[in-house]
Amino acid sequence: MFRSRASAGAANSAARDLSGAPRHAAYAAAQAAAVAHVAAHELGAAAYAIKAARAAAPKEECERAGRLECQWQHDQLPDAIRELVLDDQRLRNNICWFVFDC
After folding, report:
1. Are 94 and 87 in contact (CB under 8 A)?
2. Which of the pair, 4 or 57, is modelled with greater confidence?
3. Can you tell me the distance from the alpha carbon of 57 to that of 10, in angstroms, rounded to the nearest whole number?
4. CB distance 54 to 81 below 8 Å
5. Which residues of 41-70 are buried (b: 16+ CB within 10 A; e: fewer)?
6. Angle at Cα 25 formed by Cα 24 and Cα 26, nearest 5°?
7. What is the DSSP letter of 101?
8. How far apart are alpha carbons 43 and 48 in whole angstroms?
9. Which pLDDT value is given to residue 96?
10. Which alpha helices (H) appear in the chain, and where do they start and end?
11. Domain limits of the chain?
12. How confident is the model at residue 50, as a pLDDT?
């Protein structure tokens, strides 16, 4: 658990000096590492990855890029947990910048 906490801290530290897609990607990595010791972070990595996809796309394509990333994530969900994850996203979409509206 110490390693996951340290990794999350390192990724968060790296994100501070970045902007745009790289910053969101670093925060996604931090959230993915943090979930090992704080279960409530499980949507953070997915949300930041969607934000990174939006930020990396040209302005006129940012919403579409976010929807494509969101849909790709949904397509990766194992059947055994799909409804659980989608329900959690619906319940907490408002605290995740509404990125799960795809």
Report:
1. no
2. 57
3. 26
4. no
5. bebbbbbbbbbbbbbbbeeeeeeebbbbbb
6. 90
7. -
8. 9
9. 96
10. 2-16, 20-34, 44-56, 62-76, 82-92
11. 2-96
12. 98
pLDDT in tens, 14-50: 999 999 999 999 999 999 998 877 777 889 999 999 9
pLDDT at 79: 97
Place of tokens 């110490």: 2
Please choose, from the candidates 19, 40, 44, the residue with its C-alpha nearest in 3D space to the C-alpha of residue 31.
44
Contacts of 16 (CB under 8 A, 6+ apart): none
Query: Closest by alpha carbon to 59, among 90, 21, 87, 86?
Result: 21
Can you read off the two tokens belonging to residue 86? 């989608």
Note the residue count of the chain.
102
C-alpha distances in Å from residue 19, one per residue of 14, 27, 69, 79, 93: 10, 11, 19, 35, 23
- HSE-CB of 24 using CA atoms within 13 angstroms: 18
